[in-house]
């Protein structure tokens, strides 16, 4: 019998299970589809929240720690199994408007978190940062040390780590219910069999509130995001550019991502021509040369939405042995490395590396 079962094999579940295993915990990870097959695969992989100055401290503290952790984590994975997660420094230019109040909020955030950032409003200086931008990119905040990770490759590296370390997992194994005896976890029920255990971590992304023990207590809902990808040449675009919620992410091999929509329409992962048009038009405004590139692909993923974007990283209040690690919304990869560390601290009942109260069941999420 495993000490702990992790329900969900996205980035959050993978990082949690791996960290627990490295701490000596006998784990089993169960995933209803392929590992990393939902929003972990579908996202953009920017190692920063979009517009971080509008987020609660609870999000920023995780983001800042994860930013420090990812270089060593991806290096460890590469040395362990040879899979490159393509963590690269692209920097991020965020277009902002002329609102002095907004600008002061941004400057206060920069000072508080000691961020390397500056305001740029001269066309020549902006073109030095990214030569391909259009006229819509006329002023904004430049953060030169923002990283990105190629999330599908990160998933591959984590799966290879599970193989290398012999961490038990099962794909295509749907957990239908959490089994309890009174107010205590005793196992999980799948379509194939029941698995006994004393501890269960629900890390099921947008599906985390679908169990009877979480339906009333965990406020996580699916939020669809659609993206498109262009096929370009390496270094054609060098920087991540963001304006009015739409962003451009240049990959190492020349592919360029454009995202993303925000759609609260339930568990629907279909793509639409209207979303493609919206994303393409926004992308061309930011980087005009994209008008001449082929759109190679369009896809959608379901984010685990919470109202404030603050995840649950906690023990359940009413069920002993049940833990919830979900609700990271748009920032699963951004927060993942630090979030997994905190979840492991909670599970092992040791002093957490940060204040854990903002991530508890009763906190505002």
Helix/strand layout:
Layout: E1 4-7, H1 11-22, E2 27-30, H2 39-42, H3 57-81, E3 88-89, E4 92-95, H4 100-113, E5 118-120, H5 123-129, E6 140-143, E7 147-148, H6 151-165, E8 169-170, E9 175-181, E10 184-190, E11 194-196, E12 200-202, E13 221-231, E14 240-243, E15 246-250, E16 255-259, H7 273-286, E17 294-305, E18 312-315, E19 322-326, H8 332-347
Parallel strand pairs: 1-2, 1-12, 2-8, 4-14, 12-19
Antiparallel strand pairs: 3-7, 4-6, 5-6, 9-10, 10-11, 13-16, 13-17, 14-15, 15-16, 18-19
Strand content: 15-25%
Q: Strand order across the biggest sheet?
A: 5-6-4-14-15-16-13-17
Task: Look at the helices and sheets and give the structural class.
Answer: alpha/beta
Mean pLDDT: 96
Mass-distribution shape: globular
Cα end-to-end separation: 33 Å
Q: Topology as H/E string?
A: EHEHHEEHEHEEHEEEEEEEEEHEEEH
Q: What is the CATH class designation of the largest domain?
A: Alpha Beta
Number of strands: 19
CATH superfamily of the largest domain: FAD/NAD(P)-binding domain
Structural domain count: 2
Please tell me how large the radius of gyration is.
20 Å
Contiguous uncertain segments of 5+ residues: none
Helix content: 25-40%
Count of alpha/pi helices: 8
User: What can be said about the biggest beta sheet?
Assistant: 8 strands, mixed
Q: Could you say what the CATH topology of the largest domain is called?
A: FAD/NAD(P)-binding domain
CATH architecture of the largest domain: 3-Layer(bba) Sandwich
């Amino acid at each position: 019998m495993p000490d702990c079962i992790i329900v969900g094999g996205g980035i959050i579940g993978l990082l949690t299970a791996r960290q627990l295993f490295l701490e000596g915990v006998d784990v089993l990870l169960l995933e209803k589809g392929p590992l990393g097959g939902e929003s972990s695969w579908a996202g953009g992989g920017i190692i920063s929240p979009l517009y971080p100055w509008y987020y609660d401290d609870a999000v920023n503290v995780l983001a800042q720690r994860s930013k420090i952790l990812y270089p060593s984590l991806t290096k460890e994975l590469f040395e362990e199994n040879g899979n490159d997660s393509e963590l690269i420094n692209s920097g991020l230019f965020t277009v902002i408007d002329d609102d002095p109040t907004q600008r002061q909020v941004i400057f206060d955030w920069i000072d508080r978190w000691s961020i390397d950032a500056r305001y740029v409003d001269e066309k020549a200086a902006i073109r030095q940062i990214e030569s391909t931008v259009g006229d819509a990119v006329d002023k904004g905040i430049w953060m030169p040390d923002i990283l990105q990770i190629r999330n599908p490759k990160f998933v591959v590296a984590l799966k290879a780590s599970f193989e290398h370390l012999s961490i038990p997992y099962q794909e295509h194994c749907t957990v239908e219910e959490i089994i309890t005896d009174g107010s205590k976890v005793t196992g999980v029920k799948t379509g194939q069999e029941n698995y006994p255990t004393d501890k269960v971590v629900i890390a099921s992304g947008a599906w985390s509130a679908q169990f009877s023990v979480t339906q009333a207590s965990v406020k996580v809902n699916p939020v669809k995001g659609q993206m498109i990808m262009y096929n370009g040449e390496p270094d054609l675009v060098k920087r991540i550019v963001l304006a009015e919620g739409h962003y451009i992410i240049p990959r190492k091999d020349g592919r360029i991502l454009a995202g993303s929509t925000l759609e609260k329409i339930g568990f629907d992962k279909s793509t639409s021509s209207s979303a493609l048009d919206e994303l393409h038009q926004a992308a061309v405004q930011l980087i005009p040369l994209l008008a001449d590139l082929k759109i190679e692909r369009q896809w959608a993923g379901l984010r685990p939405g919470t109202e404030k974007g603050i995840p649950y990283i906690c023990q359940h209040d009413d069920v002993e042995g049940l833990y919830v690690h979900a609700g990271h919304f748009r920032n699963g990869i951004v927060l993942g490395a630090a979030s997994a560390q905190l979840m492991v601290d909670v599970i092992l009942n040791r002093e957490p590396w940060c204040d854990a109260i903002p991530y508890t069941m009763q906190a505002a999420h």
